[in-house]
Design a protein that fits this description.
The protein has four helices and no strands. It is mainly α. The termini are far apart.
Amino acid sequence: MSDLDLSKSANSTQNQHTRSPQRLKEQVADAGAEIKQRAGDALRASSDVAQDKLNEAAESAKDVASEAADHLNEKAREKQQSGADFIERFAGNIRDAAHAFESDTPFAARGINSAAEYVEDAAEKIRNGSFRDLVDSASDFAKRQPAAFLGISVLAGFAAVRFLKASPEQASSQRRDAKGGEM
């Protein structure tokens, strides 16, 4: 081999060595960029899926909350109607008491009838759902007729205690009747 061939061969090897690290560096950089892009794409896809699942969960939660609110409103309305019925019966009892006083003390009978009217109005306001009106009306009545208001308050307290004591007994007797009927 001649000196010229050796020098070409040496230059060629030297060029390969200088190009190889540069080429390797470019390949690593390209691979890194590709990995970075794929990781970003995967992250965006995962983020989109997570967002979709979160939206689905939020919609489900809204549906459940709406159903629960509807159910609670329905139960509250039932209790409201039951309370209004009870108060109307209470007003009837007050009117009966007023009739007992008519012959002996007509003045007391008028006051008791006035209280019965107030209680009937309260029952109607409870039935129609206007709690604010009920509170305002009670305040006005208490200012106009404090003795009657006090008497109604005492009677209402006794009636509420009787009602609360009777409710668990009725529920347990209804359960016993239902069990007895099944046998």
